[in-house]
Amino acid sequence: MKKIVIFLLLSTTFLTGCGNSTHETRYQDKGKVTFKNQNKNVHKNSGSISKESSASASSASASSTNNSTNTKESSSYTVPKNIKKSARYIAHGDLNLPKQFSYDSFGTKLTLDKIKKVDQTIINRPLQFQIKQVRLIKNEAKTAKAKKMVSTAFSNTGIGSTYYTLQIKYTIKNESNSTIIVGGLNYVKLSANYAGTPISNMVDSSAGKQIRAGKTINTTVVTLVPNNLANRLHSCSIQFSSTYSISGKSLSKDSLVTKIPF
C-alpha cells in the first residue's frame, strides 16, 4: 500500500535523479544483480496472480482516493518565496521545457533535463502498447522525508540526495473480448549491465491493473538512473511480461525486447 501511494506521487511529479559516486556504486551494483535475476519469481504463472493482482488493483484504488488527504497530513514542504519568482518555476502542471522545475510536497526539487515525444508501438496480443513520451528528470531531495520516500519507492537504500530518473509514459489497449490483468514490465534496461526491475530501481504503475475488453489506459514507469549514465543516456530497452486472464491463465508470452531511442 505504502509503495503504491508513493508511486502516485512519483508519477504526478515526474521524479528523476543522480547520486554521488559512493551511493551510485551501491545502487548500480544492485541494478546488475536485479537484471541478472529479472525473471526469477517476479511474475507468477499460476492462479495466485489473480488474487494478488486484484488486491493490488484494490489497493491502488484506495490509495488514489485517499492520496490527497494523506499528502496533506504527512507533508508540508513550503517552497521559498524567492524560488517561486523564477521564470522556470512551475507551481502546477507538467514540466514541458528543459530547465523548468517544480517541487513535490515532500521537498524534492524536480528539474526537467530532457523530454522527447515518442510514437512507438509494441504488439503482444491481446495487448497493444503505445510509447508516448520519455523524460529525464534531475531530482534533489531537500528533506529527510523526501529521501525516505524515494528509497521506499525504489526499494533501494543507497540513493543519494541528488539523483536522476527516467519516466516513460505509454498507453495499453486490450484488444481482446474479455477483461485481462497486466503483468507489467520485466525490466527497463539502460546499459549492458544495469536495469530497473520489479525487484528494485523501477516503479511500474501498470503491473496488476485490470483492463476491460476494448479499453485503453494511460500509465507510467519510472526508473532510477545511475549518475554516470545520465548525461549519455540516449536509449533504453524494455520488455513486457505475460498477460493474464481474471482466472490466472497466461494469455501471452513475454514481449519481444524493444529499444526506445530518445
List the helices and strands and how they pair.
Layout: H1 2-13, H2 21-36, H3 48-74, H4 81-84, E1 101-103, E2 108-124, E3 127-141, H5 144-153, E4 162-174, E5 180-182, E6 185-191, E7 194-196, E8 202-204, E9 210-211, E10 216-225, H6 227-230, E11 235-240, E12 243-245, E13 258-261
Summarize the structure.
Helix content is 28%, strand content 34%. The protein is an alpha+beta fold.
Supply database-style keywords:
alpha+beta, 262 residues, disordered N terminus, 6-stranded antiparallel beta sheet, elongated, 4-stranded antiparallel beta sheet
Q: Can you offer a commentary on this structure?
A:
- The protein has helices spanning 2-13, 21-36, 48-74, 81-84, 144-153, 227-230; strands at 101-103, 108-124, 127-141, 162-174, 180-182, 185-191, 194-196, 202-204, 210-211, 216-225, 235-240, 243-245, 258-261.
- Helix 1 (2-13) packs across helix 3.
- Helices cover 28% and strands 34% of the residues.
- The strands form three sheets. The chain has a six-stranded antiparallel beta sheet. Strands 7-6-11-13 form a four-stranded antiparallel beta sheet.
- The model is unreliable at 1-8 and 11-73 (pLDDT under 50).
- It has 262 residues and is α+β, with helices and mostly antiparallel strands.
- End-to-end span in angstroms? 33 Å
The share of residues in extended strands comes to 25-35%
Outline, from the CA principal axes?
Answer: elongated
Low-pLDDT windows of residues: 1-8, 11-73
Sheet with most strands: strand arrangement:
1-2-3-4-10-8
> What do the pLDDT scores average to?
79
Structural class: alpha+beta
* Count of separate DSSP helical elements: 6
In N-to-C order, the SSE pattern is HHHHEEEHEEEEEEEHEEE
Main sheet properties: 6 strands, antiparallel
Number of strands: 13
Approximate helicity band = 25-40%
The value of Rg in angstroms is 18 Å
